[in-house]
Amino acid sequence: MRTITRLSARFFCALVLAGGAHALSAHAEAIVGQASPDFSLADAQGNQHELSAQKGKYVVLEWFNPDCPFVRKHYDSGNMQALQKTSTEKGAVWFSINSSASGKQGNYPSDALEQRLRAEGSAASAILKDEDGAVGRLYGAKSTPHVFVVNPDGVLIYAGAIDDKASVDPEDVKTAKNYVRQALDEAMAGKPVSEPSMKSYGCSVKYAD
Q1: Domain boundaries, the chain
Q2: Cβ–Cβ contacts within 10 Å for residue 87, how many?
Q3: What are the residue ranges in the chain where pLDDT is below 70?
Q4: pLDDT for 34-49, tens place per residue?
Q5: What is the pLDDT of residue 28?
Q6: How would you write the chain as a 3-class SS string?
Q7: Cα–Cα distance between 101 and 116 in angstroms, integer?
Q8: What distance in Å separates the CA atoms of residue 52 and residue 60, rounded to the nearest whole number?
């Protein structure tokens, strides 16, 4: 009987551990060098945009909060719009994603977000709202801005800061090393990304508590 009990206990522990591992994997963050998690989010017009539908193209995911001073640095200087424009002109798809929860800084109706960024000259392929934060957490987006680059095979090849100047001063854009541009240029030239993971900086993503 004791042997059976010990075996049962071991079996139960194994199930618990397996369940725990499954739970962790279900909430694991996107990892550079591995397949990017698929998702579907709507734009202001209600059109759904799926990552998996972009296979064969480079995709840039930009987490933004229009009220964050670090985001403002890149939009007020025109840096983000210029990068969006050059990237999409080369055939990349650019998704600007807002994960600010209801009642948090940067949360606006989808149409207001769309109008605001387009008025500022955004060249994003689509501006998407992730109010429940599910996609942001899926990718491990920690700051605004936080940028991810996916290659045509659906593999994440870059994750992190837009550049190496962690400030809110628009003047710093002029001398900054742009990691996102570098990653796209290298990958599109058939080269490995030399700096595939750089610590992001900015405001924290305003997820729901």
Answers
A1: 1-28, 31-204
A2: 24
A3: 1-28
A4: 999 999 999 999 999 9
A5: 53
A6: CHHHHHHHHHHHHHHHHHHHHHHHHHCCCCCCCCECCCCEEECCCCCEEEHHHHCCCCEEEEECCCCCHHHHHHHHCCHHHHHHHHHHHCCCEEEEEECCCCCCCCCCCHHHHHHHHHHCCCCCCEEEECCCCHHHHHHCCCEECEEEEECCCCEEEEEECCECCCCCCHHHHHHCCEHHHHHHHHHHCCCCCCCCEECCCCEECCCCC
A7: 18
A8: 13
The CA-atom distances, in angstroms, between 146 and each of 3, 17, 20, 30, 34 are 54, 33, 29, 13, 18
pLDDT of residue 209: 84
- Half-sphere exposure (Cβ direction) of 18: Cα atoms closer than 13 Å: 6
Q: Which CATH class is domain 31-204?
A: alpha beta
Closest-CA residue to 159 (of 34, 70, 26): 34
Q: How far apart are CA 180 and CA 158, in angstroms?
A: 8
